Structure formats: C-alpha cells, structure tokens
C-alpha cells in the first residue's frame, strides 16, 4: 500500500505549499501576529484531501479484479497434509 501513502504525502505537501505561498481570503484563525489560516488554505485542504480520499478509494476498489479471484477449481483443491 505504498501508493496510498504516496497519495496522502503528495496531498499534504500540496496543501502545505498552497498555505505557505498564498494569502487568499480573510484570516479564519490567527496563529501569531504575522501568520494565520486563510480561507484559501481551508479550501486547499478540503480540495486536496477530498482528492486524496477519492484516489485512495479508487486504489482500494480496483486493487483486486474479478480475474484475480480464485476459480472454483482452485477453491476446491485441498492442500497436501503431509
């Protein structure tokens, strides 16, 4: 599941990059005198993490296709118990 970890790391880096580089919208939360969470930061977080969640869902959903499922003959095989 390295792919899922990479998806969330990339989403986090992008959200933090937007937060560091832009000052879009009003300040929602003041952290220090010169820093705060802007509306654009919150929008970037919601968009970025929603995209990461949907990508994670897609990865998990498509991880095993019907052709990967064992056939009836494979399921009927009994392993040797020697």
What would you report as the Rg, rounded to the nearest angstrom?
Answer: 22 Å
Q: How many DSSP helices?
A: 3
In total, how many beta strands?
2
Unreliable stretches, pLDDT < 50, 5 or more residues?
Answer: none
Characterization of this structure:
It is built from 3 helices and 2 strands; from the N terminus they run H-E-E-H-H. The longest helix has 23 residues, at 39-61. The mean pLDDT is 84. Helix content is 59%, strand content 9%. It has one domain (2-60). Strands 1-2 form a two-stranded antiparallel ribbon. By secondary structure, the chain is mostly helical. The protein is rod-shaped.
Features:
mainly alpha; 82 residues; rod-shaped; 3 helices; single chain; two-stranded antiparallel sheet; 2 strands; 59% helix
Produce the secondary structure layout.
Layout: H1 2-21, E1 27-30, E2 36-38, H2 39-61, H3 72-76
Antiparallel strand pairs: 1-2
Helix pairs in contact: 1-2
Brief summary of the model shown:
With 82 residues, this protein is mainly alpha-helical. It is built from three helices and two strands.
């Amino acid at each position: 599941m390295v792919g899922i970890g990479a998806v969330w790391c990339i989403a986090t880096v992008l959200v933090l990059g937007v937060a560091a580089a832009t000052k879009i919208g009003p300040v929602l939360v003041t952290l220090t005198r010169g820093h705060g969470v802007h509306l654009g930061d919150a929008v970037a977080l919601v968009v970025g993490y929603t995209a990461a969640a949907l990508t994670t869902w897609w990865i998990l959903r498509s991880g095993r296709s019907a052709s990967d499922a064992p056939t009836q003959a494979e399921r009927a095989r009994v392993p040797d118990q020697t």
